Amino acid sequence: MQYSDEFGGKGCSAGLAARATYNKGQPEHWSRKSASFSQAAKTGATVSSFQLPTAMKIIRSRSFTATHPWGALDIANMGGITTRLHWTDQPYKWHVNDGEEVFAVLDGRVEMRYRQDGVEQSAILETGDVFYASIGTEHVAHPIGAARVLVVESQGSV
Fold it and tell me: What range does the record give for the signal peptide (predicted)?
């Protein structure tokens, strides 16, 4: 089966809309849904998408905007390891995660501040850069303007 999809339409607060076109018609088990991926309602984000039979998702991160800094779209929970898309234009808070963290800048720039041997250091992360925080790494993200970041960490981490 061949299909094409288009995301990034207007009319929903997350900036995501979907349209699918099929060469042989639309199967009955494909349906348009408005979904709040897990905690989208808590963050104020609304997402409109197609639910594909394989439960896959295509998310256009540059279109995602939350109603408040660090609002998130839950993408996956893989055995207690979560993957979340965050939008922010404000700094987070100094913290140490419960486990390891992978922080990938998908859009924008972020100054990542961290403490190593008690000394504060920082690095500017550009679009495409990844910061890895090992267990016990104290850090705080300061976006430079609006930024979208993908965070992979243990469920329930700060």
Answer: none
